[in-house]
Request: fold
Amino acid sequence: MRIAFLGLGIMGKPMAQNLVKAGHELKVWNRSPGKVVEGAHSASTPKEAAKDAEIVWLCVSDTKAVEEVLLGSNGVIESLKPGTTVVDSSTILPDASLKFAEQVRAKGADFVDAPVTGSKVGAESGQLIFIVGAREETFEKLQPLFSVMGKSAVRVGANGKGLAAKLSMNLMIALTYEGFAEALVLAKKQGVDLKPLLSLINQSMVRSGVVDYKAPFVMARDFSANFPMRLMHKDIHLMLEAARQNGVKLPGLETVDKVYESSTREGNADLDYAATLMTLEKAAGVR
Reply:
């Protein structure tokens, strides 16, 4: 297929690479110049990348970036033709995505929200999970592409519902990791050896995929970004805004937001979100 892939960040670049490896014809674009994908053609604007594309795939940082790429000067909208499908794997507010979908459909194209979970490792290995809001027929048409980049794609409903589900899942990730980090700090402050503690966690009902994934990095003191704290913090703000719009209280997440604010002030924004542990350690006087 002829695919325009826009956004070559931590997640986007390996996703695009997997599409090229599968034999698809790609044109790629990235806001910051210099990023390339071997085997793909580089475009100077989103408009140029999207010209004659059957599929336009976005994976950018936030709502403003999606709006600029889609609707800004030299944006995708200027090249859209009837029958084109735009797939957005960015994490943004559902109501913003619905507005973008409306403008894309006015051009005779279709729109899909398909945020992902699986982090950097999942993107590189083609083991992402796509959380999809789309028409049933469009979802089925995209299955071959989802299978190239991921191990699973789940349609949770119409447009916007993929993002709503993604925000709920990221809420669980943020709270689960923060519980893990706080438990480590409390245990260390009381003189507990963390290795047998981790063994206990892995044998008990508190074991989780988040802990399984993050524990080796934490024990190695490796806070290089698999999912940067600034992006998880952005997602936390999206969760809180979605909660406000829907009359939902999230007291646990409001507390976690304050930890992220402190950790950001300490200069950890570009580290992995697991680096909030260091903020808790600093406050407790332990490592």
About this structure: Strands lie at 2-6, 25-29, 41-42, 55-58, 85-88, 110-113, 116-117, 128-133, 150-157. The chain has two domains: 2-158, 164-284.
